[in-house]
What we know:
Helices cover 29% and strands 22% of the residues. The protein has seven helices and 13 strands.
Amino acid sequence: MKLGFEEAPVGYSSGSQSARIWTERWVRDWVYCPNCGATRISSFPNNSPVADFFCPSCQEEYELKSQKTQFRSKVLDGAFSTKCERLAADNNPSLFLLNYDLDRLHVVNFFVVPKHFFVRDIIEPRKPLAITARRAGWIGSHIRLDRVPQAGKIFIVRNGKAEEKDHVLAKWHETLFLRDQDVDARGWLLDVMRCVESLGKREFSIDDAYSFEGELARLYPANRNVRPKIRQQLQYLRDRGYLEFVSRGYYRLRSSD
């Protein structure tokens, strides 16, 4: 995988315009589909409502966001209503996030958030545009990366070095079981995944998971049985191979890392 950009396109004096052309061209020319492994993906026509690319082999769709600085807790995105409408759709796009070095014209980091990690809680509305704006009242959105488990941030390029393709495909397929759940059911699973990951250890006890009872109760105030719900999610994650049962009350995170 080549990590450098092609020569600057003619007719674009703005750095941001050039970067957009460079990054889109790089994705089209060098990025494989992390879902099925197809060698190339294709571009949608300009100004498509949500997605930028699709895989001709498996029809997986992707949205691209690029910037010079590393992505932090939030990613600026398009119309809030459009994003929410697409959440439950089969063609809701996965998200490509590309961090580049404009001086070296080089990809620094490039990772994908698969669409099965998208639930309503990670889409945050922005403040409506002022009445004096051309699109007065329009509401954009943020994608809350800090609410996505680490398992949902799959690096294809990390610190200027491409990851092995087989490793990327394995990481993607580890969590495909989430697509078996509707958007509402996935919310609980993703929050429990995020909580146990935040413990910072491969092996943990059910009491460790219960330590997030207060946090999860605040996220789901209508649920009066948070501990049984946590236990249920752990059992499901164990049955789907994300967790491994060690002994009574103890689990281990399974990972291809």
